[in-house]
Amino acid sequence: MSYRLMKGNDALAEAAVRAGCRFFGGYPITPQSEILEYLSSRLPEVGGTFLQAESELSGINMVYGAAAAGFRAMTSSSGPGFSLLQEGISYIASAELPAVIVDVQRYGSGLGDIFQAQSDYHQATRGGGHGDYRMLVFAPSSVQESVDLMGLAFDKAEQYRNPCLILSDASIAQMMEPVKLPEMQEVDPDKPWAAKGKNGGDFKRITSTMYYIEDFDGYIKAKFDSMAAAEQRWENVEVEDADIVLVAYGISSRICKEAVAIARSRGIRLGLLRPITLWPFPTNAFKEVNSEVKAYLTVELSALPKLEDDVKIACEMKTPVKHFLGGANIPESSAIVEEAVSILNSREEVSWLKN
Amino acid sequence: MSYRLMKGNDALAEAAVRAGCRFFGGYPITPQSEILEYLSSRLPEVGGTFLQAESELSGINMVYGAAAAGFRAMTSSSGPGFSLLQEGISYIASAELPAVIVDVQRYGSGLGDIFQAQSDYHQATRGGGHGDYRMLVFAPSSVQESVDLMGLAFDKAEQYRNPCLILSDASIAQMMEPVKLPEMQEVDPDKPWAAKGKNGGDFKRITSTMYYIEDFDGYIKAKFDSMAAAEQRWENVEVEDADIVLVAYGISSRICKEAVAIARSRGIRLGLLRPITLWPFPTNAFKEVNSEVKAYLTVELSALPKLEDDVKIACEMKTPVKHFLGGANIPESSAIVEEAVSILNSREEVSWLKN
Amino acid sequence: MTKASKKRLHMVQHHERCKGCGFCILECPKEALSVSDDVNRKGYPLVKLDEEKCIVCAICHTVCPDYVFERREVA
Amino acid sequence: MTKASKKRLHMVQHHERCKGCGFCILECPKEALSVSDDVNRKGYPLVKLDEEKCIVCAICHTVCPDYVFERREVA
Amino acid sequence: MAQKLIPELLVEDNKFCPGCGHGIVNRVLAEVLEELGLADKAVGSLAVGCGCLMMDTFGTDWVQAPHGRAAAVAVGVKRVRPECCVFTYQGDGDSLAIGFSETMYAAIRNENITAIIVNNGIFGMTGGQMAPTSLPGQRTTTSPKGRDAALTGQPLNIINQMKNLPVGYLARGSVDTAKEINKVKKYIRTGIETQMKGGGYSMIEILSPCPTNWKMTLQNSLDHIRSTVRATYPLGEFVKDGERTDA
Amino acid sequence: MAQKLIPELLVEDNKFCPGCGHGIVNRVLAEVLEELGLADKAVGSLAVGCGCLMMDTFGTDWVQAPHGRAAAVAVGVKRVRPECCVFTYQGDGDSLAIGFSETMYAAIRNENITAIIVNNGIFGMTGGQMAPTSLPGQRTTTSPKGRDAALTGQPLNIINQMKNLPVGYLARGSVDTAKEINKVKKYIRTGIETQMKGGGYSMIEILSPCPTNWKMTLQNSLDHIRSTVRATYPLGEFVKDGERTDA
Amino acid sequence: MLSVTCAGFGGQGVLTAGLLLANVSMVYGKKITWVPSYGSEMRGGTASCHLRIGDSEILNPFFSSIDTLIAMNEESVDSFQEKVVTGGVIIANSTLVKNKTFRDDIRVAEVAATAISAELDNPRGANIVMLGAAIGATGLFPVEDFADGIDAYFGKKGRNNPLNRECFMRGAQAALDL
Amino acid sequence: MLSVTCAGFGGQGVLTAGLLLANVSMVYGKKITWVPSYGSEMRGGTASCHLRIGDSEILNPFFSSIDTLIAMNEESVDSFQEKVVTGGVIIANSTLVKNKTFRDDIRVAEVAATAISAELDNPRGANIVMLGAAIGATGLFPVEDFADGIDAYFGKKGRNNPLNRECFMRGAQAALDL
Ligand SMILES: Cc1ncc(C[n+]2csc(CCOP(=O)(O)OP(=O)(O)O)c2C)c(N)n1
Ligand SMILES: Cc1ncc(C[n+]2csc(CCOP(=O)(O)OP(=O)(O)O)c2C)c(N)n1
Ligand code: SF4
Ligand code: SF4
Ligand code: SF4
Ligand code: SF4
Ligand code: SF4
Ligand code: SF4
Ligand SMILES: [Mg+2]
Ligand SMILES: [Mg+2]
Q: Which InterPro entries match (chains E, F) (predicted)?
């Protein structure tokens, strides 16, 4: 199979179709509108339905309906629109339905701006919605990975009957790279649990499963604990001997990869731990890091540090955790290297390791 | 001043009026509807405006408008409705406007149920909305504290020009206790920044301040860092010599207080660290805990543990952190004592302290 | 409506479902229904049907919100 | 419209604002406007006004989306 | 004269208050679905409101929609399963307050679904707050002195909002008498038939008593509907087979 | 014959595309506010859409509303500051798609605000996706083969939705000719006057070209409005002083 | 500290009885918490509220051991009898609670509250009769003081009704008579 | 690895030029990234895109040092000249870029792309002329191979136009002539 040059958004959309997605309901917002535009012509070609909803609220609830009926369904949005999806996501999670949601992150709270950012980390990983649920969160760092993780997201959503999130960002979404696309998958929508008329059987109640499960608290905790154990994904780059390990996902991980290359060429032992799943956070990845590591340095395009908490807990706070924040600005890989060097040279210890 | 017997919701509403709140826009949802019901007759008495909005979205945006115009304004909701407020909250935060939001937590994701829970902790403390902001989050544990924190919330909202959240729950909201109410406060809405017509001056732009602040990333981080440093609030109960310190807020902290009393009467050295602000999380409170403490035990009415991360970081993971979850069930104080005893007796060490 | 047809069909009551709202009594064209002194398990007073007056029109079936009445063939 | 009144008032153009949409040219009742060869700083071709033809009706002011035209008193 | 049995779709006793109109609508809807042979093909999108209580008692496939979004959920189901009979069951607060946009957009797009909207002029489930349909002067827990239309608006007439749109079927009934209940049944039947023949969006609004929150006896509630509510919300069929009637 | 100067409220050059109708509406609105002496008392609730670009160029007090919520934000302002002249400035996508409910509810409650709705039949700012107002057959980036009304609905006529409500003033204008632009000015003036005398909700919808996303020259855009768009969206005043006109 | 549960049908005024108890206790300087039960009260079924009354700050408003149970109907006895502490008190509305076997490690005051209130022509006052019985049986407050408190409570609301005091006193009497 | 920036007015086809470069590079086995600039392109102003072309995985798609700058107008030279590395290349569209002083540590290929494309009766082909000049000046690919790549690209889209190849070749020629 040959490469195709594709925009992140288009590739994501095509990958969804090939993963068997047959319903999309959503609302335009930059920088994700290409997903709608692409699917508006592509889904009908495969007998699927594309519907531009009158709002994000309507879109996510159409997805809820289509998913309840057994079909692979998806919506996508960004920033303000992602906030509007939260109630619907919480319902889908509570009904234990599969569905895929895409958040193409953009910068800022409120209206913000349309360029890349990674500020929705907490919202994505800790349930921006109310109650007790988590989503599997996949963070692609390239157009190819957008494709690969989209397929995985649909499969995992169905396996766990839980919504999955693709957390992309404006840069991955708008850039073009060569990609290889997977084969078209046909997925049977006639799940035993699907709402499609009872056809002589028992009637099905697609609603919060809490009403019907005894010790629901225990059940739901076990469900998410098992996902947390089984679904951690990451890529480690030269962490075995690193003095400083960068921690970064998505677009910033690529800047970090360059930083590692630059550093190594200068004899500086820099490594990178790249979470591919953000929830569950890949704590297991930290076991591969050499135990003499001097510090972790999180790198994210966010005005407030967000990865830091997860890294602190993952490394059990035995190692200092510093942050390097790109907010509105894309950091230069060389600046990251400099920061790492200055951490290495600094005598200053992190407070919690002092006492 | 004498005591009045009041429901949590009514007391919260009256306290808002006395704190100068003159606009409420919101939508009914159990268990917070009494706030609307109370204000529907009370606000007009003081010349304020009560408006039952057609939806939570409309309500939060009316609040945005009234706050932009300089008035103390509030909305309240619960669970699903709180999720719907997230976009609006993010806008209010980005415009750096004061406003107070109330989330009377109820159980469950999706539709859930109307009884008490503490599952919205992450949503409340980490910004359920998109982008880079935090809210000051106050967690009352009694009707009186609902009153006291409401006044504080309005003052702090104005001081920092940032939305503040009162995180209540069905039990605090529905129970009655005697309260003392503060005096009525009159607040001048004619702030220099308020949108009220430019009246010969420069025109005012109430929008994300990021468009007009240089190094906005640095600015906003400094703002929230300063809030985090200055606004931690907590109550510590017998932590000076405790072997086990419970960490709990709101309604569960009261169960824990009873557990502490029971334990102490049995000679077991149990203590309680009660966060009053959830963001900022009162890390400083941990300095008052004796350094020989054997473990922290978080107690929350949630199916998934949420406080745990903040406690781990606050205690720098030097002490094991265990959780005790009440989900749909209210735990008995004696069960908490038993759990504490079993932790004390257990030989098993927490993994991160083993290696 | 003849006695004959009344023989073939009659109204059956599921008293345990009744919530005592009185809609059936209000709407019965023949005043065949009335409140009795007995209560059902839920504590609601039973609706008494006077077979003599009843013309089996099933209006009570139509208005009852709680599925108390059925028109059935006499067994 | 007399030459006299034209003397008192005339159309002033803020060429730097023009985006070359052509609405003024389309709507000018006297064909007094046309595209010139010059461009403004933004790179848009300037609109040339033929004072002779112009009756100072300000229709160009009305239609211009970019506030190019004003009718002002002759200085 | 035939038997009149309780429909099998009513798998459990309903959980509504004494005298609540929802129970009547439930029975009628169940009868229609059974009579049309659609019980096995029906999927309901259930609103949040007292209608919620049907989840366990009314034996069709259900999807519990978030408050106000029943129409969007139904659209999601119907678009992927056009062979199903897809309906919403909603209160007036759900469909006309928070869900106004979703309700209207289903009609605007002429989605091939049937909306059942039970208008009791109040938020029943949450304890009697004002609804967009509450009448001027009506006392509710959020309009304790009676609804002031100057501040909160006139009652919302959803049929007026929809009847200019190219939809399939619109009707308004009431459950205040046996005669009107029979008409409601006819309306629901026609609405569902419209859907099943691909005739586009159908909506049946049903005036219904909420004795609990109206704080009235059932008798007074019924009188109130007949004497007052119907004046604001006239009954009848307003659009049939995509054509406006004279009603 | 008087001078015709550029209003002082236009503090900076606008940022719209060449030939965009927003610029015309901006000038007209600024003129009306100045002529009525309201420039100092005006507060605008600004939608998300190309109108956003006015935040720095149009010198009234502004509140940047979330997409679709401009009416709710305006209501919040007006209810606490009834002495201000409060208006929304919105696109058709903002006011009629995501914000349909907020827009309609401001009218349903007859809120004393003025809504300016610029209908260019498309989502301009986000690059030309279909709007609820797009015409059947119209090619947009999300209806690449032309809008299929059977699947996505007929164009939404907001005046039809509002004209049965007890509102103060409703009109639809167009900026496609000088004459119509002058009418637009009159409509906006009447709408704002209605508000300032407490006459209730006023809404002025304005047909406007988006040459960029229509992918047409300005001339073709204007021709298109005159020959086609206006047929779906007739111009005129529909409600005046709370009374329906014959339009 | 006393833990009191008050339970009955939705319409029997159990929440009000609890409220009265809470209010008068507060006026007499007690610390109190009052917690309603949830559930679909609106649609019938059993309602209940749960009070703690003490001299110092009430820590936990929830409790699983009941000191005093005010049971307006049979269901309430069924639901809550097991939770009453040994030596605790049940005030049972004997008009509706019939043929119940009570545990023998608790004190039971059977008061025909519904009958008494009917007799006094104050049919909605059964809850106050029960309250009287509770005060009488537990001795929480002097009966007269508490009766004054009730009068003051209704007086402040402008809903004074001498029948309420009578109901209360009859209940107290019935309990004392036992 | 080569870092290329392609910039000009919104309507000059700079994104397409970048796309072509990316596509043909991909077909010839290169790894590439193509990143558009943001901003209000829709409303005029300068557009740009940024490519990295290499033989192994492209790590960071962003860069601040430009190896080759394709500048379709003066603004692009103003914006990006400073970022060109010493020894780097600027392809300047001399029809529009006039009287500019260029840094003397870089190679500048001035090509009258707009004029050439006009001359060839392919006014929308100025971007392809520039691309030809870029390939010619940098030697990234053999000129003929790249021209074939362009033909294949447009061919696949069913938009083959022999004038494109001519534009390309004229651009390449102009650069080689320098
Ligand atoms: C997002 C959200 N907001 C509010 C609620 C609370 N709520 C539940 S039902 C309801 C109103 C019900 O009224 P209606 O739809 O008229 O139904 P009824 O009970 O009267 O039949 C409300 C406001 C909710 N569950 N979710
Ligand atoms: C919640 C949310 N959803 C979507 C968007 C993206 N968005 C911005 S403007 C717009 C549409 C603008 O169209 P319209 O209102 O017609 O204004 P125009 O630009 O055409 O004048 C959209 C969908 C957003 N900013 N916020
Ligand atoms: S069947 Fe008719 S007559 Fe008989 S009880 Fe019912 S309503 Fe009355
Ligand atoms: S209508 Fe039904 S529920 Fe009501 S009283 Fe009659 S039988 Fe009972
Ligand atoms: S003022 Fe009238 S005549 Fe003169 S240029 Fe303008 S439009 Fe033409
Ligand atoms: S209408 Fe204005 S912007 Fe357009 S061409 Fe004329 S002067 Fe220029
Ligand atoms: S509250 Fe009203 S609508 Fe709800 S079940 Fe009771 S009577 Fe029916
Ligand atoms: S995109 Fe359309 S609406 Fe937006 S500024 Fe350009 S022409 Fe105007
Ligand atoms: Mg209702
Ligand atoms: Mg538009």
A: 2-oxoacid:Fd_oxidoreductase (IPR051457), THDP-binding (IPR029061), TPP_enzyme_TPP-bd (IPR011766)
